[in-house]
Amino acid sequence: MTQPQSPHWIDQVTNSILDWQKETNQTQLHVDDMKTPSGRIHTGSLRGVVLHDLVAKALAEKTQKVVSTYVFNDMDSMDGLPAYLDPKVYTPHMGKPLYQIPVPSLEESGLSLDLISNQDRLELEKATNFAELYAIDFMQAFRRLGCTQEIVWSHQLYESGQMDEIIREALDGVDQLRKIYQDVADYKLPEKWYPFQVICPQCGKVGTTLVTEWDGTEVSFICMPNKVTWAQGCGHEGKISPFGGNGKLLWKVDWPAHWKALGVNVEGAGKDHTSAGGSRDMANAQCPTVFHIQTPFDIPYEWILVRGTKMSSSKGVGTSAREFTNLFPPEIGRFLFASRHYNQVIDFDPYSMAIPDLFDEYDQAARITWDQETGDKRQSRAFQASQIQTQPGPYFLPRFRDIAIWMQHPDLNLVEKFTEVKGSALSQQELQELEDRKTYAKAWVTNYAPSEYQLTPKADVPPEATQLTSEQKTYLKGVLHLLEQDQAWQPDALQQALYETAKSSLGAKLGFQAIYLAFLGKTAGPRAAWMLLAANQDLVRTRLKLLSEE
């Protein structure tokens, strides 16, 4: 007997949140996520944005209005210098709040300028500070995936006074906070520790300051020259009000403070925050005892890796979010996150078959949705949640990997080939889908595809062809002779002839390497006969003649 399928994870989480809402008497749901814009933001951060957007929109279908926000923690200090920035320019700003650091030019920013549209560029050029530039770049990426959260800037919360009474609660509750650090993280704090950092009024740095006293009105502080290794304080000492944007709470206190300020009651976090004794446990413990709020509903999610590597914004390591969202249509990018359970690691390698496989999976989910195929209804749910505009009706979807191969054959007409596959003429919608996918297929073949999918010889002689030995050039002359003696080769027969010709002279390995060097600039590639016969024959003969005569 077939076991019933469990609900899709989106519906599991949504139902759990609604049950929790009833149990805790929450009048309204507020879903939030946050990020520190410390540089070019990588693909990994997209998982949290899309996950929270999917959940918020699923909740909105079942309950009253749901608030959905995304916080940029631009009050955080610059504590790591991105590799793509000029150290001479930005080292002096280390330790300052990110929103008070000068904005780099787009040419110096490390952003993927070749992927930025004119409209996006105009928006980026309006950025007034470091944090804003990288936040806007990230926003443009996740807006492309259909994420619609309202943006909140942390420095505006502090400067507006919305954080003032919460800061007071944290400073007044310092004894309770020390106990939480000890009990939850096994971290013993000094007697004069306080959960607040002043922005030094003399040098403008926040990462170098230490608060030493709180009298109920002002904090005493010192800007320490050697507090951290990545920034140098100026030594200034003084007293200042902690309110109105004069400083910020330390991260492990700042997080639940944001929950109270905004009214957040649903927020997940990556596994680096949700490990035992980590920042999530610390934040949870503060909610009832320090800030007197309900602990938000948690959705602990796994990372997305690119080629097995966790990425870093500040170090410039990993694929940027913008690069990732340009690999495929927005709905398919969103589908990647919707179709994977939040506690499943996504290891995405664009330099493999991951992109064609994702297109195949999306297409199958579409056919299940349209009752054209039986299968896992959870994939249908993921397909529906991935749509950014309206839910599309049934139509023919040309297979991505077929496009990638066939578009490299100059003798093939893609419209005719897919009309044949479909069994009838393509509609205008289907013709547009074919054109769109052709664009993504070209990018994949050019930049990421395994060599067997790079079937088109280069228009110009590859520089690597200079590696050809005299024996290999002689072999290429023999290949030219084979092609000229028979104008109607079948691929299998030509492949065997190429093999026999090479085997009788320099050896099969070196012979086929000569063909790949001559046409692809590589020592390996697709089956040589298929490649040669699919290519423009004038190009093939001209190339063989040129290289064999050198």
List keywords for this structure.
46% helix, Rossmann fold, 3-stranded antiparallel beta sheet, 4 domains, 3-stranded parallel beta sheet, 550 residues, mainly alpha, elongated
Descriptive report:
- This protein has 550 residues and is mainly α.
- It has 4 domains: 203 residues, Rossmann fold (3-Layer(aba) Sandwich); 62 residues, no CATH class; 60 residues, no CATH class; 87 residues, Arc Repressor Mutant, subunit A (Orthogonal Bundle).
- It is built from 23 helices and 12 strands.
- A 3-stranded parallel sheet has the order 1-2-3. It has a 3-stranded antiparallel sheet with strand order 5-6-7, with no helix packed on it. The chain has a two-stranded antiparallel ribbon with strand order 4-8.
- Strand 5 and strand 6 form a beta hairpin.
- Helix 14 packs across helix 15.
- The longest helix has 20 residues.
- It starts with 8 loop residues before the first helix and ends with a helix.
- About 1% of the residues have low confidence.
